[in-house]
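Explain this record to help learners:
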Amino acid sequence: MINGKVVSLFTAPYGGDKMISADHLSCLADEGIEGDRYALGTGTYSKKSEPGRQLTIIEIEELEALKHFPDISCLAEQCRRNVISQGIRLNSLVGKIISIGTVELKVHRLCQPCGYLEGKLRKPGLKNALWDKGGVRCAILNDGKITVENNISLVE
């Protein structure tokens, strides 16, 4: 059985805005997170239509592993992801359906880091350090709520 948990949650109303910590996310099926830049159409990549842009997840373990790279760090609130997970390997979930709280998500693809994040944080090398470790992009399948400490599990 695949199980993890949510350790923190973030949203931002506009692309480039500082991520705001939240105790819960109100998710809207096929739209995104209430109040978040991609549900509002104000995200940096909102004009680039593709599935899985509604919610992103990254493993806290991958952010913590950056300590092995000199001069590279990225805190949970800096990584531009909505959900920070612990105890679950996300890459293996691409193409699968997972549940978090009362929300089911289709994991579409890896969320590869981009030059935007590296430039925004002024951390040369961050993109390469997080390549294939930058989390996953998900589509929201039903309305519901995700809270800190929710379990993350595979829907069989």
Observations:
- Residues 3-154 form a domain with the M1 Pyruvate Kinase; Domain 3 fold (CATH 2.40.33.20).
- The first strand starts at residue 3 and ends at 11.
- The first helix runs from residue 37 to 40.
